[in-house]
Amino acid sequence: MSRDEIVVLVTAGSEAEAEVLAETLVEEGLAACVNIVAPVRSVYRWKGDICRDQELLLLVKSRRDRFEKIEARVRALHSYDVPEVIAVPICDGSEPYLQWIAGQLSD
Fold first, then answer.
1. Residue 53 has what pLDDT?
2. Under a CB-based contact definition with an 8 Å cutoff, are residues 50 and 10 in contact?
3. Cβ-proximal residues to 23 (8 Å cutoff; 6+ apart), any chain
4. Beta 86-89 vs 5-12: how paired, if at all?
5. What is the CATH number of the domain that holds 76?
6. Disulfide check for 38: which of 4, 56, 70, 89 has CB 3.0–4.6 Å away?
7. DSSP label at 28?
8. Residue 58: Cβ within 10 Å count
9. For the chain, how many structural domains are there in total?
10. pLDDT digit string (tens) for 12-28?
11. Does the pTM of the predicted model rise above 0.90?
12. What is the per-residue pLDDT for 3?
């Protein structure tokens, strides 16, 4: 059975930015819940250099039909030129929790 729920991964460079992103997504009904996990250590290539940064990871619980709007809001609010916005499908989960996610998202 295919599910519609997703977890969207977003990294942020500061606690303030993570809070703004999380609050905006929940207030606008794009996410049921956003967990902010810190710190995470990121190692990546940017403009030819290997970079190492401490970031915060947002775990955004939502549905597939919200992804484009989530991506647009993150890109509009984010300080990065190329913010991470990756959706991972939820293949299974606690049915009451998944129903709660659906009930929190505005139409």
1. 97
2. no
3. none
4. antiparallel
5. 3.30.70.120
6. 56
7. T
8. 26
9. 1
10. 999 999 999 999 999 99
11. yes
12. 87
Query: Which segments of the chain have a pLDDT < 50?
Result: none
Q: Which residues pair with 61 in a beta bridge?
A: 7, 33
* Sequence-distant (≥ 6) Cβ neighbours of residue 18 within 8 angstroms: 12, 36, 38, 56, 58
- Smallest Cα–Cα separation from 61: which of 16, 15, 103, 19? 103
- The answer to whether the beta carbons of residues 52 and 43 sit under 8 Å apart is yes
Q: What is the DSSP letter of 99?
A: H
Encoded tokens for 12 = 């942020």
d(CA 85, CA 63): 14
Give residue 90's domain range: 5-104
State how far the Cα of 90 lies from the Cα of 50, in Å rounded to an integer: 32
pLDDT averaged over every residue in the chain: 96
